[in-house]
Amino acid sequence: MPQKISYVVNEDCNYNRLDKFLRHKLKDFKLSSIYKLLRTGCIRVNNKKIKDPAYRIEIGDSVSVEYSGKIEHLKRLRESREPVPHEIPFSILYEDKELLIIDKPPGISMHPGKGVQVITLIEGLMGYGNRKGFKPFLVHRLDKHTSGILLVAKKLDNARKLTALFRNHEIDKYYLTLVKGHPFEEKGYLKQEVNGYTEELSYNVKELFDNSSLLTVRLLTGKKHQIRRQCASIGHPVVGDDVYGDRDFNRKFKKEHGLRRYFLHCHKMSFKHPTSGRLFQITSELPEDLKRVLKSLRSS
User: Which CATH number does the domain housing residue 21 bear?
Assistant: First the structure.
């Protein structure tokens, strides 16, 4: 029996891009399943089939999802739950009436999801927002084990403005990462096509060790797992990354230097404030666990 779900885009769910709208509405679907629905023509906007994830939607548009049980591998997050405000400690790098910038610690997930039953970052932000009198809006994300700068809007209008800055690549994002081996070039540029998207980054070799290199990476686009995936594609995966990297190397490195996650930290961002237009530059120091790893490398 075919199933159909219909939505209307309104002020509270105006995400501009179709895929972001669907991710907000279909919270119990895995991201891969949402893109499968798009590819297979199961998504209609104003009764017209749309397959482009970046299709621009507007307030008042009708979005419908139609799918059959015959579609294989349509995976749901059956263990997902609704976020609940909690009080958790986090370091604030900057705050005003419009914007909150925090230093995300490693090891905490952004949202509840499959297998994520512990307190998540959005729940901590909700708890903080309840105390301070605002509703937090996440405008980008960091993976669970990635630390560093995270921007949070306090108003929906500013969330849209910041999202547009990210979408138009008007926010400069720099990461520090440790990769396996020594890249051939001291300064490099990587570009590749993934599922119809162009992914780009540039890097500078900051420091060389015996069998690894510390890089400063500038994201020129911003896709999920992009740094980890692109570094692995040239044979220099992020150290500690068991998904795209070298597990044997990681096990040995962990034993020698105590690294307990992949080495990736959002170190610096520069952007225009969504209200004042003033140019901001925010930096975040490496957390202590990654500093200890570098100290171990330098002494070995």
Answer: 3.10.290.10
